[in-house]
Design brief:
Elements (H helix, E strand, L loop, with lengths): L1 H31 L6 H18 L1 E2 L7 E2 L4 H24 L7 H23 L16 E3 L2 E3 L1 H23 L1 H11 L1 H6 L4 H23 L15 H10 L5 H24 L11 H17 L24 H17 L2 H26 L7 H15 L7 H18 L8 H19 L10 E2 L4 E2 L2 E2 L11 H23 L1 H11 L1 H6 L4 H27 L1 E2 L6 H14 L4 H10 L4 H9 L6 H15 L3 H17 L33 E12 L2 E12 L3 E5 L6 H8 L6 E6 L2 E2 L5 H7 L1 E3 L12 H6 L6 H10 L7 H9 L15 H14 L4 E5 L7 H16 L3 E5 L3 H7 L2 E6 L2 E6 L1 H4 L3 H8 L1 H10 L1 H7 L1
Helix pairs in contact: 1-5, 1-6, 1-8, 1-9, 1-10, 2-3, 2-4, 2-8, 3-8, 4-21, 4-24, 5-6, 5-8, 5-10, 6-8, 9-10, 9-11, 9-16, 10-11, 11-16, 12-13, 12-17, 13-17, 13-20, 13-21, 13-22, 13-23, 14-15, 14-16, 14-20, 15-20, 17-29, 18-20, 21-22, 21-24, 22-25, 30-31, 35-36
Bound molecules: adenosine-5'-triphosphate (ATP).
Length: 936
């Protein structure tokens, strides 16, 4: 019992550090929208200054020579806090403020760049060796409870953090600045309109967060562990777990969660080091794995309830370059690689082989982060998992089977990590993957129960009994091994190129662009993400296996978290959205060609990690598509100039200069209206207290065009969302006589219920043709296998027919988002049509079309219906609706107030009343609704 109390006090101290960091993460997030992975790193720098001041009497600020100064303790604390404040100012001005509207991925990556820059900068300025930290808080009064002497400084620290957290909570709740932070977090645009400056709010939050964390770090002394450049910064992982448990919002819950995590990990330390019944395999690293377990559970249980933060403006991710595997480019790049392998020796050849192997790890980022938009910080852990697996099975299995099995082990781990990604995305996934990387490093790679403490030797690959030793005597990279790596990397890169330009690649890009629209285009979003995780971790595993051969031996730090963050940094700097970017990144990779050059010829290897962090920040700020993207743009400009000086810009489909005459009236199509193809009974949609759709019955017959009209807010879109499975609803929905009420959106789409969206919802990275085509492809593992061998397959007839019907075939190769709004809507209709639906729901398809295009669209709609498809049309253009629809349903406040033929409905007094109010009713009766509809 007394040990329990001792560890409870120790745990409260540790928990206090976690809590203070976690509260800072929450305050920064609410004020700036950035989950700051460098929060602990920013406070670590002042701890070094404080440590030098108190232990050596030296003021050693970054970039400046040390000064002899022996200040009293309060002055030393004050100097450290001032440094913390200056760091916050600098980070705000140089990084977070310029990135305020950048995509979430960019902001996460920038804070990782900051983490790397600070930790590597500390290493250069203060050295990488461990430093002891002296207690700062008083050791009195001595507290003895139940015979246990409790650690008083840790209890003081816990008390201080509780007070600081309460003060922060009061500040947020009661002060003008606190109100501004809360307003900005809810709706930055509205806050800005109300006169609140988002920039000032962001700075004040960051300042408060950094200074309070600095104070706690400085006073915590040995509670934060030994002082090394990376140990205190890595406290960010348990702190992120606590912040998530507080839903990135509640200071109180965050405080409690941090304290609880601290206490739990102290108790784990106690039990695992003392109790004989504690399993041997769980004696090392379990405390480090705890935050991962907590984060996964927290995100799984309440991932969707963690609030996003609305920015004033948002910018999309850099666009993806779909690889073409052009023969000339492949031959030139492969030739260059071969020359590098054959033309180098010694340490340079080692650099070449490292670059080649790293290319596969960089490709793993291109697949997962570039193509699918999922941020993973665990790619090095996957590489390491394969490396460690290879050290165990490399002797038992021949090459390449051993390498493939090892990579499959990494892939299995990747799929496990991908499971939480089905419920979460963006920065939350970055947090899970960071925690996973730390857990794998500490609990698996550094655990003697799973690895060999004497060294995890990786046996040389042997091909048909011929051993290809990676090293031989003093040769650190043999030519045969380099050629083997070259061959593997070339084949795998070509296969990845095939996958990215095939249907799997289109599914990836669709999911990255818009998950809801992808789901209703029949794409299984969950399966697509899992496939991406599997492929990406498999690639990381292959790269890790090849790297492990070159190393010969692995230890716990070989594929640690910081290695992983460095991989991400170079992948981003090279260009995370293209294979060319991965090639550039592999040249920049740790121990790769450039590194060897910097080390050998410039004697600057110690600057490499710092340069990596800084370059990452600069890339995020200046050039999100990386070096490869910039190169491609420059090349484009150059070739345009050579072709005659024309500017290269996105292709746009311009409408005709002068509006052509309206098309001839559609020759009367013989439309046979068949039996009921769609039926909704008692459909009701509630948003909290509001009944948006109230027990609506609606029926559409095959070949019939049914209009659903009503004033703004009547519930039309909610009804379509309900029947297509995009919002919760009561009632029954049947398609072709089969009830589909319980099916999800994707299954409803597969059953033949297609829809278009009010806001186009196209896939921005795909061309017009691919936006349509992607809805006809099934993807999955079968698609992956087909893509690998034959990525260019014939386009389905329904796709070409839909493009032709909507007159989009002449602009099929243009990027969909470069079209006018009206034409984008037509692409949405074509996509729905290509799925060969029985029933088509069109949500305001004519908004954005001019009168000529609208008249054409009316004809198109009749043609669609004449093929037997039931159509439900929502539109405010009454001219179109009255002209084209066979029957109309009129909604008001969620209820159907009229049903009938257009000529009946337009004379219905309730309808006239609903549209215009009673005063104007009689006037309109004479002019007709059509005029009013057109005016709208
Ligand atoms: N996600 C939501 N949460 C809460 N209320 C909602 C939500 N979506 C819609 N509403 C409300 O439900 C009602 C119906 O909205 P809906 O968008 O379905 O109407 P609509 O007829 O499609 O309007 P419009 O013609 O302007 O598109 C409105 O009062 C709207 O404010």
């Amino acid at each position: 019992m007394s040990n329990f109390l001792v560890f409870l006090a120790l745990g409260l101290g540790l928990g206090a550090v976690y809590s203070s960091l976690a509260v800072s993460i929450v305050v920064t997030y609410r004020g700036t929208g950035v989950v700051n992975f460098a929060c602990a790193a920013m406070a670590t720098l002042p701890v070094y200054v404080f440590n030098d001041l108190t232990a050596n009497g030296q003021l050693s600020l970054p970039f400046l020579p040390s000064l002899a100064l022996d200040p009293p303790l309060p002055v030393a604390v004050l100097i450290s806090l001032t440094e913390g404040a200056l760091i916050a100012l600098l980070v705000h001005l140089v990084i977070f403020y310029p990135l305020r509207n950048a995509p979430e991925l960019a902001r996460v990556v920038a804070s990782i760049g900051l983490f790397l820059a600070i930790t590597q900068g500390i290493s250069l300025r203060y050295g990488a060796e461990q430093r002891p930290l002296l207690p700062v808080l008083p050791e009195s009064p001595e507290l003895t409870v139940g015979g246990a002497i409790l650690n008083t400084p840790r209890l003081w620290l816990a008390g201080l953090v509780v007070v600081l957290s309460l003060a922060t909570s009061l500040w947020l709740a009661r002060t003008r600045w606190g109100l501004a932070v809360r307003a900005s977090a809810e709706n930055e645009r509205a806050a800005a309109l109300a006169g609140i400056s988002p920039a000032k709010v962001a700075f004040v939050s960051l300042l408060l967060a950094t200074v309070s964390t600095t104070l706690v770090f400085v006073l915590a002394g040995p509670t934060i562990g030994l002082l090394t450049p990376t140990a205190p910064p890595m406290l960010i992982v348990p702190a992120l777990a606590a912040a998530l448990l507080g839903r990135l919002r509640s200071i109180g819950w965050t405080l409690l969660a941090g304290l609880a995590i601290g206490v739990a990990s102290a108790q784990i330390t106690y039990f695992s080091s003392v109790e004989p019944w504690w399993p041997t395999w769980a004696r090392q690293g379990l405390g480090d794995a705890l935050p991962f377990a907590i984060i996964v559970v927290a995100l799984f249980l309440m991932g969707r309830r963690i609030p996003g933060r609305a920015a004033e403006v948002t910018v999309s991710l850099p666009s993806v370059v779909v690889p073409r595997n052009r023969l000339l480019v492949v031959v030139l790049t492969a030739g260059l690689g071969l020359v590098a392998v054959l033309g180098t020796e010694g340490v340079y050849r080692y650099g070449v082989v490292t670059t080649l192997a790293s290319l596969l790890i960089m490709l793993s980022f291109v697949v997962l982060t570039g193509a699918v938009g999922q941020i993973s910080l665990a790619q090095a852990a996957f590489a390491g998992a394969a490396g460690f697996a290879l050290s165990k099975i490399g002797d038992a299995l021949p090459f390449p089977i051993s390498m493939i099995v090892a990579a499959l082990a990494a892939s299995a781990l990747g799929v496990l990590l991908g499971l939480p990604a089905l419920r979460i995305r963006g920065v939350q996934l970055a947090i899970v993957s960071l925690a996973a990387a730390l857990a794998i490093q500490k609990f698996v790679f550094s655990n003697s129960a799973f690895t060999d403490p004497g060294g995890n030797f990786v046996p040389s690959p042997s091909l048909f009994g011929w051993e290809i030793a990676p090293q031989s005597g003093s040769v650190i990279a043999t030519r045969e091994f380099c050629l083997l790596v070259f061959a593997v990397v070339l084949v795998v890169t070509l296969l990845v190129g095939n996958v990215l330009r095939g249907e799997t690649g289109r599914h990836f890009l669709a999911v990255r662009s818009n998950e809801s629209a992808a789901a209703f285009a029949g794409i299984d979003v969950a399966r697509t993400k899992i496939v991406a995780f599997a492929v990406s971790s498999f690639l990381a595993g292959l790269g890790g296996s090849l790297l492990s051969y070159t190393r010969g031996q692995l230890d716990g730090g070989s594929y640690g978290v910081v290695v992983g963050l460095t991989f991400l940094a170079v992948a981003y700097v090279g260009g995370i959205t293209s294979i060319g970017g991965a090639v550039v990144a592999s040249v920049l990779a740790p121990l790769g060609v450039l590194y060897v050059f910097i080390d050998r010829d410039l004697n600057g290897a110690s600057w490499y990690p710092l340069a990596g962090g800084l370059l990452l920040i600069v890339t995020v700020l200046q050039n999100p598509s990386g070096i490869a993207g910039q190169f491609r743009r420059d090349l484009g400009r150059l070739s345009a100039r050579l072709r005659g000086g024309r500017r290269v810009g996105p292709a746009t489909a311009t409408p005709p200069a002068s509006a052509p005459a309206a098309p001839d009236p559609e020759p009367m199509l013989r439309r046979e209206i068949g039996g009921t193809c769609f039926e909704a009974r008692g459909v009701t949609v509630r948003y909290s207290g509001l009944v948006a759709v109230d027990a609506v019955d609606l029926e559409v017959r095959a070949g019939e065009i049914v209009g659903l009209i009503g004033p703004n807010g009547a519930g039309k879109t909610s009804f379509v969302d309900a029947i297509t499975g995009f919002c919760k609803a009561d009632g029954t929905i049947s398609l072709g006589g089969r009830e589909i009420s319980r099916h999800g959106p994707t299954r409803r789409a597969h059953e033949g219920l297609a829809r278009t969206w009010q806001n186009t919802e196209l896939f921005g990275d795909l061309s017009v043709a691919d936006n349509v085509r992607v809805a006809t492809e099934r993807g999955g593992l079968a698609g992956l296998a087909r893509d690998a061998v034959r990525p260019t397959r014939p386009v389905k007839r329904s796709v070409t027919d839909a493009l032709r019907l909507l007159a989009l075939d002449d602009i099929a190769d243009q990027p969909a988002t470069a079209l006018s709004l009206g034409r984008q809507k037509l692409v949405g209709v074509a996509r729905a049509l290509a799925m060969e639906p029985r029933m088509l729901c069109l949500d305001e398809p004519a908004a954005g079309l001019d009168s000529y295009e609208t008249a054409e669209f009316a004809g198109t709609l009749r043609r669609i219906a004449s093929s037997g498809v039931g159509c439900l049309l929502i539109d405010h253009d009454m001219g179109l609706v009255l002209d084209v629809c066979d029957r109309l349903y009129v909604l008001e406040f969620g209820e159907v107030i009229a049903v009938g033929r257009p000529d009946e409905v337009r004379r219905d007094p309730r309808v006239i009343q609903a549209y215009l109010g009673s005063a104007a009713a009689s006037a309109v009766e004479t002019s007709g609704l059509a005029t009013e509809g057109q005016r709208r």
